[in-house]
From TrEMBL:
Membrane spanning stretches: 6-26, 47-70, 76-94, 114-133, 139-159, 193-216, 228-250, 257-280, 292-312, 324-342
Record bears the keyword Transmembrane: yes
Protein name: Sodium:calcium antiporter
Signal peptide range in chain numbering: none
Swiss-Prot/TrEMBL GO biological process terms: intracellular calcium ion homeostasis
Species assigned in the record: Candidatus Nitrospira allomarina
């Protein structure tokens, strides 16, 4: 992590907002690149959202969680990963507001996105089991950590198989936006696309590295808890790419990518806890957490469960022209985070 000792409050705040701006601006460019990569590679928007968009927009979160875990801030690292999943799920409701034709859950019907959602719930359950289970570690790493990584890789194979050979498909309506590649994107230079994607990912990762140092410095200056700063304020900044790329995807009409980017990114973000466990030097990071991290896991699982209900129910129009589930997700998130502020 950046050596933040001696940083003034003004410098920390300035770097915090500057790195947030960089993350947001570069994140906007990523959507177009990933949409074109999905068409060029033929893997589909849902898997591209999970792999390319999810991994790249999660880079600031990876850097922040891993560097803070390495520095011994276990609560901050885990709260940042879990808080990111919660706020990014809430971002999907905001993206729903910008699509006026129908509810996003209705228009972006995709078995692959449902599969990603179930994978996310399974991985969160594993993390919860590690936290509440007996204290055990091998070489400072909990046995659940490699299991989380292995399940993620296996889950991606299932998602890809679901896209290539689906055994069932959602009913198409006049508002359903199927995942169909644009003809011009299928013949683009793959090497150039990957180079542009890599450059954008490096910029986002650098922004996350600076953000991590400034965020920990702000914890010191303000006296706020690591859970509050890591789970709320820092996640708002490092999750900016997810919000921006989702809004941009909706604007481009890539609705499956918009939903897949959020759900796939959330699934990838569970790996942040695993990476943090590898980086944490004082034993298993799961056993250095508190009830507040358990609370964040329960909150994210509740929000994801509501989202899955929405994707299955597929309400065409709802409250304020967004799905009832999207409205409920926002309500649950705001209420859940408010409770964290209570003494």
């Amino acid at each position: 992590m950046l050596e933040h000792e001696g940083w003034s409050f003004t410098l920390s705040l300035t770097l915090f907002f500057m790195s947030t701006a960089v993350i947001g601006l570069v994140g906007w460019k990523l959507t177009q690149l990933v949409d074109r990569l999905a068409d060029r590679t033929g893997i589909g928007e849902a898997l591209a959202g999970a792999v390319f968009l999810g991994a790249s927009t999660s880079l600031p979160g990876i850097v922040t969680s891993v560097t803070t875990a390495w520095g011994g801030h276990a609560e901050f690292a885990v709260s940042h990963a879990l808080g990111g999943i919660a706020i990014q799920t809430a971002f999907l409701a905001i993206a729903d507001m910008t699509y006026r034709h129908a509810n996003l859950e209705h228009a972006a019907a995709s078995p692959a996105n449902l599969m990603n959602g179930v994978l996310l719930m399974s991985m969160l359950s594993l993390i919860l089991l590690a936290i509440v289970g007996p204290e055990f570690s091998l070489w400072n790493v909990h046995p659940v950590t490699p299991c989380v990584v292995a399940i993620y890789i296996f889950g991606l194979r299932l998602v890809h198989h679901c896209h290539v050979e689906p055994l069932w498909s959602p009913k198409l309506t006049s508002h359903t936006k199927p995942d169909e590649p644009e003809a011009g994107n299928c013949h683009e230079n793959l090497q150039k696309l990957m180079m542009a994607f890599t450059a954008s990912a490096v910029l986002i990762g650098t922004g996350g590295w600076i953000l991590a140092g400034s965020a920990v410095s702000l914890v010191t200056h303000t006296g706020l808890s690591e859970t509050l700063v890591g789970g709320v304020f820092t996640t708002m900044s490092t999750s900016m790419p997810e919000l921006i790329t989702s809004l941009a995807a909706v604007r481009r009409g890539a609705l499956t990518l918009a939903v897949g980017g959020i759900i796939g990114g959330n699934t990838f973000d569970t790996l942040l806890v695993a990476f943090s466990d590898f980086a944490y030097q004082e034993g298993s990071i799961y056993h250095a957490t508190t009830n507040q991290q358990v609370y964040l896991i329960a909150l994210t699982m509740l929000m994801n469960g509501i989202l899955l209900l929405g994707l299955l129910r597929r309400e065409e129009h709802g409250i304020a022209n967004i799905g009832f589930e999207s409205f409920l997700i926002l309500l649950v998130y705001l209420g859940g985070i408010t409770i964290l502020f209570l003494p």
